[in-house]
């Protein structure tokens, strides 16, 4: 990479291109009052070319040497990238076997976790059935309770009517006994007068 006069460069880019320590670049920036953007020095390409007397051909030459060194370092990386691409493709093919739709997911369990999960699922189903049975029983109890309440209401009403009838009969009986007693007293009184007991 070479310094272009119409571009701007950060301190780290200048340090890398020109192989100058960042502290030295800080001192240069302070001495020449280079402007800061986001609290970082920004160097103009034209300033760097003038300051360091850079020749365009020398910077290209340094760049080509750097590229040679980099190309030797890149070859193993390219091989590794190709291996990774093959591995990614293999994993994609393997995952396509599972045919996971939108809104679905694939879980991986240990054997113990899977056994625990299946046991809890069975327990849940059993508990669900028990709850449904309890709900039915509660509904039946409610129905029975309504029927019992109605039965006891009818029984109470019948007993009340019976009590009223018995009370009425007793009242009539008392009236009748009272009348008979009165008439018996009168008859006895009349008889006693006739026989001159009185």
Approximate strand percentage = 5-15%
Q: What is the rounded distance between the termini? A: 161 Å
Structural class: mainly alpha
- Fraction in helix: over 70%
CA-based shape: rod-shaped
Number of strands: 3
Number of helices: 5
Compressed to H and E, one letter per element, the order equals EHHEEHHH
Query: Looking at CATH, which topology of one domain would you report?
Result: Arc Repressor Mutant, subunit A
The CATH architecture of one domain comes to Orthogonal Bundle
What is the makeup of the main sheet? 3 strands, antiparallel
CATH class of one domain: Mainly Alpha
Please mark out the parts with pLDDT under 50 across 5 or more consecutive residues, or reply none. Answer: 57-64
Mean pLDDT: 83
Order the strands across the largest sheet as they lie in space. Answer: 1-3-2
Structure description:
There is one protein chain. By secondary structure, the chain is mostly helical. It has a domain at 1-54: Arc Repressor Mutant, subunit A, CATH 1.10.10. Helices cover 76% and strands 5% of the residues. It has helices at residues 11-18, 22-31, 45-52, 56-96, 111-194, and strands at residues 8-10, 36-37, 40-44. It has a three-stranded antiparallel β-sheet. Mean pLDDT is 83; it is low at 57-64.
């Amino acid at each position: 990479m070479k310094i272009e006069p119409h571009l701007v460069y950060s301190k780290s880019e200048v340090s890398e291109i020109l192989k100058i320590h960042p502290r030295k670049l800080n001192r240069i920036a302070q001495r020449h009052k280079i402007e800061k953007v986001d609290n970082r020095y920004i160097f103009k390409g034209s300033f760097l070319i003038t300051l360091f007397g850079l020749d365009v051909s020398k910077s290209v030459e340094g760049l080509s040497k750097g590229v040679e060194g980099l190309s030797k370092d890149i070859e193993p990386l390219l091989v590794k990238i190709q291996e990774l691409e093959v591995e990614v493709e293999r994993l994609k093919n393997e995952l396509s076997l599972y045919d996971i739709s939108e809104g679905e997911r694939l879980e991986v369990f240990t054997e113990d976790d899977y056994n625990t999960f299946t046991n809890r699922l069975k327990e849940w189903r059993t508990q669900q059935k028990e709850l449904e049975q309890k709900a039915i029983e509660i509904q039946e109890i409610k129905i029975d309770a309504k029927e019992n309440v109605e039965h006891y209401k009818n029984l109470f009403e019948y007993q009340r009517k019976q009590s009223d009838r018995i009370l009425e009969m007793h009242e009539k009986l008392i009236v009748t006994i009272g009348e008979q007693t009165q008439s018996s007293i009168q008859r006895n009184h009349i008889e006693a007068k006739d026989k001159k007991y009185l």
